[in-house]
Amino acid sequence: MSMTHSAGGLxxxxxxxxxxxxxxxxxWGVFREWRQRGRSEDELCSLSDRALTDIGMTRGEIEYxxxxxxxxxxxxxxxxxxx
Length: 83
Prior knowledge:
By secondary structure, the chain is mainly alpha-helical. It contains 3 helices and no strands. The protein is rod-shaped.
């Protein structure tokens, strides 16, 4: 009796693993961008109205300015900044 081992399925497994790793990296990048936007919003909200006026914005424009910095949002959010 003879036993034969085939490596034919390894290419498929490696390809699947690569796709999973790529997806995880992409999700991690989106998560980091989302956290950075949150920190930016928090920082701008902590400024006084006078400081915001000095940099040419109003409190109502904070969310728009932070979101516009990315040009296109990858993570749809329904949250709204309330300072």
